[in-house]
Amino acid sequence: EAQVTQNPRYLITVTGKKLTVTCSQNMNHEYMSWYRQDPGLGLRQIYYSMNVEVTDKGDVPEGYKVSRKEKRNFPLILESPSPNQTSLYFCASRKGGPEWTVNTEAFFGQGTRLTVV
Amino acid sequence: RKEVEQDPGPFNVPEGATVAFNCTYSNSASQSFFWYRQDCRKEPKLLMSVYSSGNEDGRFTAQLNRASQYISLLIRDSKLSDSATYLCVVNYGGATNKLIFGTGTLLAVQP
Predict the structure, then answer these.
(1) Which pLDDT does position A97 carry in this prediction?
(2) Which residues of chain B have pLDDT under 50?
(3) Cα nearest neighbour of B103 on chain A
(4) Which residues of A touch B98 (CB under 8 A)?
(5) Disulfide: which of A64, A74, A106, A107 matches A94 by Cβ 3.0-4.6 Å?
(6) B93 contacts A96 by C-beta, under 8 angstroms
(7) CA-CA distance, B23 to B14, in Å (whole number)?
(8) Is the CB of A31 inside 8 Å of chain B's CB atoms?
(9) Which residue in the set A31, A105, A110 is minimally distant from B42, CB to CB?
């Protein structure tokens, strides 16, 4: 089954304690991205990656890091979480490169609800 | 001004009703358009792409007006299972192939 898998689904942590949210896709997609969703603000892109070892900032990258060492995995790292990073996070993937078209569908993971206290 | 704007709702409609959502976007160079559905803070899922000529998928009809930078979604014969948040999504294309999401319109279909 084609899917994007995020872990953990729920996490409560304390300010300053480093954490990693994992994301893995089994569709061989080149393009992966991370979003956060907050009430009234919609989904905002944190970071994206167009292929292995190619990553770039989205609209709200402050306080986050990512890496793309393998095509299937795109972890999101919070080195020193703060309460303003409490949010619902989604990883997404879609085709890129020569298979990409303007109507290419994005597939989302189930989301990670993060609370930083 | 937001890049993609939607009426947040909620739209409360009875079963069987027809309901329409609108969305406007600010970037005239936008290349593609979508409606995604999101259930109760679950992941968004593609409902349908929106084509220039308009397109229909069962009870759902999407329209695009590039001149007015306006997208619409029409749902006929609403079902309880249509209750969800509907996200208007615009793809700017270009080098980053970026998706811009509206904040969503909440639909509640009442029995």
Answers:
(1) 65
(2) none
(3) A42
(4) 45, 48, 58
(5) A106
(6) no
(7) 22
(8) yes
(9) A110
Q: Which helix (H) or strand (E) holds A88?
A: strand A87-94
Measured between CB atoms, does A109 come within 8 Å of chain B? yes
Give the tens place of pLDDT for each residue, A1-51.
Answer: 889 999 999 999 999 999 999 999 999 999 999 999 999 888 999 999 999
Q: What's the pLDDT at B54? A: 87
pLDDT for the residue numbered A26: 96
Give how far Cα A8 sits from Cα of A3, A107, B18, B49, B62, Å. Answer: 15, 18, 39, 31, 36
Pairing of strands A10-13, A112-116: parallel
pLDDT of residue A101: 65
The closest alpha carbon to B88, from B30, B40, B42, belongs to: B30
The predicted model gives A56-83 an average pLDDT of 97
Residues in A touching B3 (Cβ below 8 Å): none
Q: Residue A52 has which token pair?
A: 């292995």
Nearest to B102 by CA among B8, B29, B15: B8
A116 Cβ partners below 8 Å, 6+ apart? A13, A14, A15, A81, A82, A83, A84, A85, A86
Coil, strand or helix at B97: coil
* Cβ proximity of A1 and A105 under 8 Å: no
Q: What is the mean pLDDT of chain A?
A: 93
Q: Do A111 and B42 touch (CB under 8 A)?
A: yes
> Does B96 touch chain A if contact means CB atoms closer than 8 Å?
yes
